Amino acid sequence: MLRTKLGDFELDGVFTNGSGVNDDSLEKLLQIANSRAGFITTKTTTFHPRAGNPGPRFYMIGNSTINSMGLPNPGYQKMAEIVKELKTKTKKPVFVSMSGFDTNEAEEMTRVLSPIADVLELNLSCPNLKGKRQIIYDAEATEEVLKAVKKNTNKKIAVKAAPFLDFAQQEEFCEIAKKNGVDIIVAINTIGNAMYIDVDREMIMLKSKWGGLGGEAIKMVGWGNVRRYYEYFKGSVPIVGCGGIYSGKDAFAYALAGASAFACASAIYNPEGVAVFAKMEKELEIELKKHNYSNLQDAIGKAKEF
Ligand code: DHB
């Protein structure tokens, strides 16, 4: 059994579900609570309930995924009720993922969700909102949201970061995160603007045409982004690695890059569901032993360099 720390949180279990998978109802969140996940993440909730984009809107292709879900969720008031109930049934920390479309929404959602959340996870990186820029790619908008949220909470805040494909842009976000007291970074979200074409059918397979790419296909971008955060913050801001984690070995690589815990999204779609956490934990224990680490903490950031 592996333990880890995310700032002040001492976690019994080093995995969580990546926001958006198996996490939009009490029943599904309880499955995660009763698994070997060390903490629980909710589906990103918005001010108004959303049905999301029309389907088809999700595919699993090998160990990669593409989706154009469009943030289907019951809205923040219903999510607050769900999390309140969840908290009576588990001691595991709950990361409540939220996305306000403007600062008024963000402030109101923070006021309601903050008292019941252990961590507010700000999803600044949904790629599936037509006509809306991903907030994190806009430095001014990012700073505005962070200030609005910080003003209304004394809880820890995490940011779900989009993949940065440009170093200077990632560093600009790091500076804003540092200045505004981001406590935890979850990296990376899906890579937006992707497309799945079935050549035999000569067809774009998502109704919304473009979607977010996840799973195996994005793992190396994940490692790269995590390492940049680790080097920038010199380990002072804990990182949850996310993107293509299918095995203990994948998680070990994220640890070597600098992650202290691991979020699995695509992997939960496999038939075993939330049982993947226990399976990957065993694999990670074997991997740590094989490389002569007596615990996860000792492996964090230890990727050797030429
Ligand atoms: C959705 C949100 C995300 O943050 C993401 O990475 C992929 C999909 C969504 O609900 O559309």
Written account of the structure:
- With 306 residues, the chain is α/β, with parallel strands linked by helices.
- It is built from 8 helices and 16 strands.
- The strands form 4 sheets. The protein has an 8-stranded parallel beta sheet with strand order 3-16-15-10-9-8-7-4. Strands 5-6-14-11 form a 4-stranded antiparallel beta sheet, with no helix packed on it. The chain has a two-stranded antiparallel sheet with strand order 1-2.
- Strand 8 (119-123), helix 4 (139-150) and strand 9 (156-161) form a beta-alpha-beta unit.
- The mean pLDDT is 97.
- The structure holds 3,4-dihydroxybenzoic acid.
- 3,4-dihydroxybenzoic acid (DHB) binds at residues 20, 44, 67, 69-71, 123, 125-128, 189-190, 212.
H and E order = EEEHEEEHEHEHEHEEEEEHEHEH
Average pLDDT metric: 97
Biggest β-sheet strands, sense, barrel: 8 strands, parallel
Biggest sheet, spatial arrangement of strands: 3-16-15-10-9-8-7-4
Enumerate how many helices there are, as a single number. Answer: 8
Bound molecules: 3,4-dihydroxybenzoic acid
- Termini gap: 33 Å
Q: Stretches where pLDDT falls below 50 for ≥5 residues?
A: none
Percent range of helical residues: 25-40%
Identify the overall geometry. globular
Strand content: 15-25%
Structural class: alpha/beta
Q: Cα-atom Rg, whole angstroms?
A: 18 Å
The count of strands amounts to 16
How would the blueprint of this fold be written?
Layout: E1 3-6, E2 9-12, E3 15-17, H1 26-33, E4 40-41, E5 58-61, E6 64-67, H2 76-87, E7 94-98, H3 103-113, E8 119-123, H4 139-150, E9 156-161, H5 167-179, E10 184-187, E11 191-194, E12 197-198, E13 203-204, E14 211-215, H6 219-233, E15 239-242, H7 248-257, E16 261-264, H8 276-290
Parallel strand pairs: 3-16, 4-7, 7-8, 8-9, 9-10, 10-15, 15-16
Antiparallel strand pairs: 1-2, 5-6, 6-14, 11-14, 12-13
Helix pairs in contact: 3-4, 4-5, 5-6, 6-7, 7-8
The chain binds 3,4-dihydroxybenzoic acid (DHB).
3,4-dihydroxybenzoic acid binds next to loops.
